Amino acid sequence: MINIYAVTYTALESLGYPVREQGTYAPNETLPEAFVTYQIIDSPNNSAADNLPTSQTTRVQVNLYSRDPDIKQGADGLLKSVMLPAGFLRAGGRDLPFSLQTGHYGYTCDYRYYMDLR
């Protein structure tokens, strides 16, 4: 079976920014100028045969944060450039509110990864 965490991390690390799971930066930790986070949203079984799952689609949310608004504005294309070749399908993206506390702009996008379990 595919390790979705490893597939996601490997795709995102090729961007050259620090990559971490969402929520793993400590409140007192200094954030990088730009970084990427990800989290698994859900992973339902899509189909079954003989009471066994035959396929599964995992939804992964990817976030790019940057103090440079130009990086955020190009985030959709940047994320697609590594996620699509890794086998993910884009499910929709949107800007995140500017963080006054950290000075980061943000962009988030959901991707789906299909796995044949047979």
UniProtKB/TrEMBL annotation:
Protein name: DUF3168 domain-containing protein
Species this protein is from: Paenibacillus brevis
Classification of source organism: Bacteria, Bacillati, Bacillota, Bacilli, Bacillales
